[in-house]
């Protein structure tokens, strides 16, 4: 994934939509499966969000700012956001 960012109106306590970033990550994982990459997705995190992405996306911190979502976590995200679709 490259440059996923929440709109200013969708940050903090007053955000309009919940789960926007998770939904986008799930879509990227879904495309990864469709393209034969077993759901694996990588992205660069803002350093202060590493823990957040580990908890919310099931990503793991590979080193530096590199985060990776592997097959097992990809399936969980897809099932959460694309259930029955």
3D shape: globular
Fraction of residues in helix: 40-55%
Per DSSP E runs of 2 or more residues, the count of β-strands stands at 3
Order of strands across the biggest sheet?
A: 1-3-2
Overall pLDDT level: 90
The H/E string reads HEHEEH
Unreliable runs = none
Largest sheet: 3 strands, antiparallel
Q: Quote the distance from N terminus to C terminus.
A: 22 Å
Number of helices: 3
> What is the gyration radius calculated from CA atoms?
13 Å
Please give a structural write-up.
With 85 residues, the chain is an alpha+beta fold. Helices cover 40% and strands 14% of the residues. The chain is built from three helices and three strands, in the order H-E-H-E-E-H. The protein has helices at residues 20-34, 50-57, 71-81; strands spanning 41-44, 60-63, 66-69. The radius of gyration is 13 Å and the shape is globular. The model has no long low-confidence stretch (mean pLDDT 90).
In short, what is this structure?
The protein has helices at 20-34, 50-57, 71-81; strands spanning 41-44, 60-63, 66-69. It has 85 residues and is of the alpha+beta class. Strands 1-3-2 form a 3-stranded antiparallel beta sheet.
List the helices and strands and how they pair.
Blueprint: H1 20-34, E1 41-44, H2 50-57, E2 60-63, E3 66-69, H3 71-81
Antiparallel strand pairs: 1-3, 2-3
Helix pairs in contact: 1-3
Keywords:
40% helix; 3 helices; alpha+beta; 3 strands; three-stranded antiparallel β-sheet; 85 residues
